[in-house]
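subagent[fold] <- orchestrator: predict structure for attached chain, return tokens only, no commentary.
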Amino acid sequence: MNNAPLTTTDVLGPDGLLGRNMPDHEYRPGQLHMGQSVERTLNDDGVLLVEAGTGTGKTLAYLVPAILSEKRVVISTGTKALQDQIIQRDIPRLRDHTGLQFEAAVMKGLENYLCLRRAEEFAMSSKPAEPAHRRYLTPLAQWQNDTSSGDRAQAHGIPETASLWNHVLSSSETRLGARCPHYDACFVTRMRQKAQAAQIIVVNHHLFFADLAARRSNFGSVIPEYDAVVLDEAHEIEDVATQFFGIRISTRQLEHLSRDVHALAVGVPIDVVRAAQSHVARASDLFSTLLGQLPTPATSRVSGPSTSSDGSPSVPRLEIQPEHLTASVQSTAHELDHVLEQLGATLQSTARKDERAAHLKRRTSRMRNHLAQFAEPPHHEASTHSHVRWRERKGRQDIIGASPVDAGAVLREHLFLSTPAVVLTSATLTTTRSKGEPSFDFLRQRTGLNEMETVEEAVVESPFDYGQQSALYLAHDLPDPRAGNYPALAAERICELVALVGGGVFVLCTSLQMMRELHKRCTSPEQAHPITQPTLLQGQSGKQATLEMFRTQRNAVLFATSGFWQGIDVPGDALRMVIIDKLPFEVPTDPLVRARCARLEEQGESPFMRYLVPSAALTLKQGFGRLIRTQKDRGIVALLDSRITTKGYGKTFLRSLPPAQQLKSLETLKDFWNKPKGQQKPPKEPSTKGSGPHP
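subagent[fold] -> orchestrator:
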């Protein structure tokens, strides 16, 4: 009797468990190759970079070896949608068809979960009678009655931007911990208990890097200790790490601090509450004064206004230069720090007895910490070029902060050198060299892996026949997207394209402002041939609810932004066209982008070709990847940015995309779409490249 432990080959191989037991499973050589590479990394420790083309089946390729390793492995995804797919679909299917016994849990940020205490307080207040909330009371009650997880992704009929969420969801600023009367029944408590008992923990990048930053700052941790991490959609990790290894202070933080100080009135001596209220009111006034002494985004030399996620006007970030930290700014910051210190001392007297006060004191200390880093005098600053300070306005919220210019150094120290085994995977990790060969150089440079001694690399090509299954329509006759007449002409072309395929279309935009404008124009009665199919707009409902409506209706048109460029899986003819409004370049005036470009210039490099173009090429590759999800899918990607055909750098983008038929006229596009499917070519045998250690 063979008692040898199972290997990845035993499960994913041509005669493996899944092939024998799962009716719709097909053996994929590329999937097995990737799984074996992941297995080797988990067993021997180290870092693995693996680009797995769409259709490889990369989720199972890392889940199977992670489970078989018997180590505690964190799976971190770029989106909550992929999180949900793994925990709700992939893991149950693995259990059902392999007989493997293991515990798995999902963890999301606190703001994703219903807070029973806050929901109860909301119901007992006068707020439900307010018009902004009243319309959502029925779907809220239905969700509260049905949910077993408290995860708002499962809520239907309540937009992501609804102000109602601010009153009923949990957060790090409102969670009381073990002293809360609802602690045992709390959805967050249950989530953490399940994670503590699990071998496989599925998180998203925001939570993973928030936890990593908390560990670095000795603020404790949220995710249980682990032996290895798999970072799916790993092309995102530089941006997410930059966010969480920086600092920020906002008017909203102070508003929440004030709200929670006032909530102390029950159970805390009245003199303590009044003193704390006085201090926080003074702190809010001083922060307003500080903002008034700094340059404001509204008068900065940046690109025009965009729109924030809540629909309010927003303007891009403005860099705060060392010379902006004047003597008056330093004086105000010092006074603000003193008031926050007084607030902390006031809370200290009752923090030992009241968890709410203890939590407020910790938040106050963190705010003082961030303020000191932001307002550090320029002549005392040892790392002038390591961070960039900025100010941002999002809707009614003012934010100041500082972000690391080079996230690679932080990632190398706190992730790659401190975690025994790390796997980075995505369908888009490589850019293409001039000779057409895929290269991980851009990713390695941005994440600090270029200074690691040994990193294993593998490229697993997609099994799909893109030449037969897809067309890339290049709208060369449209004006430059920066031209004033572009939105009107782009909307007209979108209507024509939607009519061609009869719906089943994603319209992916690079900004919320453009998303809303194109949606408005395409559905307006003033449009010559407006879209008649059902239209969906990102943000009107939760992402999962929106996706479910899109899949169910079969002919819908979804207007969306970055959240739908990746991690979204809509196989079959429910999605038959992806329209992209323009090449997804970073905003060149953003302080962080500008600082990174300046650093490359100092090193004698071209920031445009070494940073902006490859970064945009990876994002475009992600958008293209939404289209073909199975061997039977067929569809069109339409790019409305004529620069891909008129500018020299357009060739870099085209070389990075799958080899679809490139068409430049609507007539040839119609011919492609109306041609009978006929006999498909035999599926390509997935090939692998570059596997093995990379010095």
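orchestrator: received. Logging for downstream: The first strand starts at residue 46 and ends at 52. The longest helix spans residues 327-351.
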